[in-house]
Design brief:
This protein has 409 residues and is an alpha/beta fold. It has three domains: 84 residues, Winged helix-like DNA-binding domain superfamily/Winged helix DNA-binding domain (Arc Repressor Mutant, subunit A); 122 residues, Nucleotidyltransferase, domain 5, CATH 3.30.420; 154 residues, 2-Layer Sandwich (Nucleotidyltransferase, domain 5). The strands form four sheets. The chain has a five-stranded mixed sheet with strand order 5-4-3-6-9. It has a five-stranded mixed sheet with strand order 12-11-10-13-14, sandwiched between helices. Helix 1 packs across helix 3, helix 2 crosses helix 3 and helix 6 crosses helix 13. The longest helix is centred in the N-terminal third of the chain and has 21 residues. The chain starts with a helix and ends in a 27-residue tail after the last helix. Bound molecules: zinc ion. The site of zinc ion has 7 residues, from loops.
Length: 409
Amino acid sequence: MVVVPSKMGRLNKRALVARLQRLGMASRADLAKSLGMSQPTAGKIADDLLELGVLEEVAEPQLGTGQGSGPRSRARLGRPGRMLRLDRSATRFVAIQLGVSETKLAALPLGADLEDRWAVTVATPGSAAQWVRQLRTAAGQIQGRGAWGVLVSVPGVVDEQAGRVLFSPNLHWTEKTDLKKAIQGVWKLPVELSQEERALALGHQSVEGETEDFLLVDFGDGVGGALVVKGQLYAGPLPISGEFGHTPAPGNTRPCGCGAVGCVETLVSTRGLLQSFRSAARRPEASWKDLTEAIAHEGAPGWLAQSLEAAAVVIAGSLNVLGLRRVVITGSLTELPPVVMEHLSSAIRQGAMWARFGELTVEAAPRRRTAGLVAVGLDRLVLPMTDRPRVAGGARRPGSGRSEATPAP
Ligand SMILES: [Zn+2]
């Protein structure tokens, strides 16, 4: 009896928050209209969220100042009023990107910037103990006071529910580490892990809005993807999905961090691309910048075209199997000269059956990792739909002790 209205309440709150995430700023009347709610209903939800510290009220900004406005905000007519937006004045989350080569940290408000902005970047060390020492130092450098939780982007095969890394081809020490516990030694707060490509897909979705389903593929230290299907981040029966990188490319003999030989990741990760360039150009010291310049001057050499085609085969195969026609590419390939993305997308098109009679989109997009982590925080910590056991740590819940069991209807 109690569960239904409380879940309804949370659903409505989520809808309003998601709308504000995209609009940037809106009046109560605008929100009611765009959500198809009555003004009193939308107003009540907004008041509850204001009280929880999820939203803040601001004077309508002067036209021309971009601060806080989302991509789709527009000039408004009529008399000025009080506007709502996601709270930007208080730190609500500590965000951590545990990357293969670098670890980045930032203290984020709920109304975080759409662009990734990290306050601290350090080289990721080779052990849990060293990593925790780095976190402790970084904790003093970011303004994490008052945060509701710690959100962590983690590479590899991650059981997000259990908060464990099951397998990490490029960062094996995380498999033997209780990351949540380690992080709670630094911040006594709830900790939520998100598989890194899943965070990117959520970030893309929350910033770009209710667009068509897509497959996001990220190229960087590793190569992997995540899917948004029927508007939701896809989760299969196993805590694994989008692992493009570890599909073998015929003829490739490079050993991979996952233990197999010939994985496509060893060709198209940043390290794989550099390795091929250095050996083909006979420049063992060549840098990523050298590679970029060489492509800008000479186009895509044969080894690069072949590596891109190997990646495209896996991506096109996935589209064919899953029934998707939209691919979002993030990461290192998008930073190389345009010929690289052109070659990749034409190779994907060649393999995708839909492209033979329909339209297929392959687009480059910036990484929206912090936006994705904030989406994870909203989803799991602030407005959770399931009453999972709370993470140990005794952290203050949003709204100073107001329990999720007694939300407003
Ligand atoms: Zn592999």
